[in-house]
């Protein structure tokens, strides 16, 4: 059989995507569809490094893999992406288990892939700025300190137990550190103070924290802190507002805070206009409410003597109602913040249509 006959056969059977170069079949991928300015490849299957070597990816800056199977996001894979000039990658439903961190990619979104291992090379200069690896099976943050250019790191819903906060001290531009839904119990054995000069958003929700080492955290720009759904029993709210002078949003709900912490938190956060979510504790009413007995008596113009008890009960009921109303207002404020954040995300996606240079992950 001659080469030209093979070529013709291939054109018929390989639907014009594969062709022969020096005996090897080359798979030339083309965009199946676009989402905004992201080129999408559906059902790509690349497993063996030889397959990757024989793959040519579209010459685009933003490339998304949907379904199919990649298996190993290898060094060779990274090289092929680099050759195509790809700067931003997302992969969804591709079952990547092993990631060799790419040094030339700026934004990498590998949510929900079953990732178990990330390989980071200490001598490599990484340009990565946005890294989202949520909903995977990572257990370790080993060598993440070499990703010094990160602005955003999202590792929600993995299996991480220990986070040495110093890991992020090498990332002067880190703004968002999202670690929710792991098994974090401790922040390592070091007692050194960690400065994260750009951090505005820290999410530690849904972990197993019993205490926060506030005295170790120097986070001068922190605006939004979530410690929701942990095992905290105490919260030093006055230390929190001192350590994080710009704090505007604090979610400490779903923790079993003691009455002292609860009472102090309400006062401190209301006073500092920090939008806060803290569960109502089963503390005595007087403990939970800012006014004391004496003040209550005065506002009613009654000195509680014989008939005083019924008045006190009424006062308590009113206080309870005020408290519940205040909580509703707080929840609505949180929702407004959410809406604002959602609006910002939408605006960014509009920008993404206008100028891909400012693109953020729309997925
Ligand atoms: C990808 O595979 C799924 C299921 O196998 C199929 O429904 C879909 O049409 C495929 N997409 C493309 C672009 O080939
Ligand atoms: C993935 O690639 C790395 C480096 O290229 C290699 O060491 C490893 O064995 C590969 N793993 C699998 C499962 O192919
Ligand atoms: C604050 O943090 C929480 C938890 O990470 C997040 O759900 C919320 O959207 C954030 N709010 C703003 C305004 O960034
Ligand atoms: C409220 O904050 C101010 C300073 O910001 C402080 O002087 C005052 O004592 C605080 N009040 C309460 C009840 O904590
Ligand atoms: C904001 O967006 C998230 C995800 O799209 C959604 O779950 C949430 O309900 C939205 N929040 C509001 C207040 O619309």
UniProtKB/TrEMBL annotation:
Alphabetically sorted, this entry's keywords are:
Leucine-rich repeat, Repeat, Signal
Matching Pfam families: LRR_8
Question: Could you say which residues form the signal peptide?
Answer: 1-23
Q: Which Gene3D superfamilies match?
A: Ribonuclease Inhibitor
Q: What is this protein called?
A: Leucine rich immune protein (Short)
> What lineage is this protein's organism placed in?
Eukaryota, Metazoa, Ecdysozoa, Arthropoda, Hexapoda
């Amino acid at each position: 059989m001659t080469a030209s006959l093979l070529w013709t056969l291939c054109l018929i059977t390989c639907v014009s995507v594969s062709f022969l170069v020096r005996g090897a079949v080359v798979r030339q991928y083309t965009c199946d569809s676009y989402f905004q300015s992201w080129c999408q490849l559906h059902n790509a299957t690349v497993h063996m490094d030889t397959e990757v070597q024989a793959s040519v990816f579209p010459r685009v800056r933003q490339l998304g893999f949907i379904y199919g199977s990649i298996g190993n996001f290898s060094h060779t894979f990274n090289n092929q992406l680099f050759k195509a000039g790809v700067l931003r990658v997302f992969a969804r439903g591709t079952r990547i288990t092993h990631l060799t961190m790419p040094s030339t990619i700026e934004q990498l979104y590998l949510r929900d892939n079953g990732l178990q291992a990330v390989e980071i090379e200490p001598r490599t200069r990484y340009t990565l700025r946005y890294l989202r690896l949520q909903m995977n099976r990572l257990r370790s943050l080993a060598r993440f300190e070499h990703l010094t250019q990160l602005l955003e790191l999202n590792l929600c819903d993995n299996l991480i137990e220990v986070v040495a906060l110093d890991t992020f001290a090498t990332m002067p531009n880190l703004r968002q550190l999202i670690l929710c839904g792991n098994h974090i119990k401790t922040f390592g054995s070091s007692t050194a103070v960690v400065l994260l000069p750009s951090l505005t958003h820290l999410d530690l929700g849904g972990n197993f924290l019993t205490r926060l080492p506030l005295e170790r955290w120097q986070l001068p720009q922190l605006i939004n802190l979530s410690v929701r759904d942990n095992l905290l029993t105490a919260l030093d709210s006055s230390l929190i507002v001192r350590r994080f002078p710009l704090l505007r949003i604090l979610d400490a709900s779903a923790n079993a805070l003691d009455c002292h912490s609860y009472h102090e938190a309400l006062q401190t956060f209301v006073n500092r206009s920090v939008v806060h979510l803290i569960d109502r504790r089963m503390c005595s009413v007087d403990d939970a409410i800012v006014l004391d007995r004496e003040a209550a008596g005065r506002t009613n113009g009654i000195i509680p003597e014989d008939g005083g008890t019924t008045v006190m009960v009424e006062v308590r009921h009113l206080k309870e109602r005020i408290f519940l109303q205040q909580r509703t207002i707080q929840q609505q404020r949180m929702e407004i913040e959410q809406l604002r954040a959602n609006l910002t995300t939408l605006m960014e996606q509009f920008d993404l249509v206008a100028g891909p240079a400012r693109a953020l992950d729309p997925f």
